[in-house]
Design a protein that fits this description.
With about 240 residues, the chain is α+β, with helices and mostly antiparallel strands. The N and C termini lie far apart (about 60 Å). It is built from nine helices and eight strands. It has helices at about 1-10, 25-35, 45-50, 55-65, 85-105, 115-120, 125-135, 185-190, 225-230; strands spanning about 70-75, 80, 160-165, 170-180, 200-205, 210-215, 220-225, 230-235. The longest helix is centred in the middle third of the chain and has 23 residues, at about 85-105. It is globular, with a radius of gyration of 20 Å.
Length: about 240
């Protein structure tokens, strides 16, 4: 419980101004944004699970963040970001994803390592530094794993895509985004060339949670539904199964 208490003290010390939010506060806001897809309500238990913090502690912090005007909270209905909280969450997401992109493009970091580095750096980097990083690498629109980068003005592309696991056999798709939190999974996807921008064909889906067979170029690969659920795609109309 010592770690939980330390987080509580850091949150209590956060100042009301947006530029002076502490790292733990920014983590809360970023997590609520991700779980609520920007504007939806989020259960405190889900926040606790994502942040690995005791639910009772999360409830207390939610009340304090509501007092600061960063979110609204209704008992039994969940937590929603206010406009101010949403702007703060997007600032943090911008810092994180620009840092990921800079590490990848300017410093040639492998894509399975940039997320952890950005987690460490996102609270320390100033907005000016992040803007300079973005400018130096050509103002990327997406991070290495395909996640959209919020603009300086706070605009965010919130288009929702399909999990690969949800689509049927015979459909051609383009990979848009993959989950970035498991380095081992990213290394494996990289080996299979299942990366943002890749075009692939869903050849077959075995029943009862069996493997999904994909054609990538001229190569066939099989992956499980759990892994396919971490890959977001958009359908293609011009990629079809070859004639037999």
């Amino acid at each position: 419980m010592k770690n939980v208490r330390r987080v509580e003290l850091q949150l209590l010390n956060s100042a009301p101004g947006g530029d002076s939010l502490t790292g733990p506060v920014e983590d809360y806001l970023k997590t609520i944004y991700a779980l609520g897809r920007g504007t939806g309500a989020v259960a405190t238990n889900d926040i606790a699970q994502r942040l690995l913090i005791a639910p009772a502690s999360v409830s207390g912090m939610v009340r304090r963040l509501a007092e600061q005007g960063l979110l609204s909270y209704e008992r039994y209905r969940g937590v929603k970001l206010t406009e101010r909280g949403r702007r703060a969450a997007l600032r943090t997401l911008r810092r994180h994803r620009v840092i990921e992109s800079y590490l990848s493009k300017a410093l040639s970091y492998p894509w399975d390592r940039v997320h952890a580095e950005a987690e460490r750096l996102e609270h320390a980097a100033s907005d000016e530094l992040v803007d300079r990083m973005a400018s130096a690498i050509g103002e990327p629109a997406v991070a290495p794993h395909g996640a959209p980068i919020p603009s300086r003005e706070g605009f965010m592309d919130e288009t929702e895509y399909f999990p690969l696991a949800d689509l049927g056999a015979g459909l051609g798709v383009r990979v848009v985004r993959v989950s970035d939190e498991d380095p081992q999974m990213l290394r494996y996807l990289g080996e299979l060339e299942i990366v943002p921008g890749a075009e692939l064909l869903i050849v077959s889906k075995a029943p009862f949670g069996g493997p999904i067979t994909l054609r990538i170029g001229m190569t066939l690969h099989s992956i499980g539904p759990a892994l396919a659920a971490q890959v977001m795609v958009e359908p293609l109309m011009d990629l079809e199964a070859p004639a037999h």
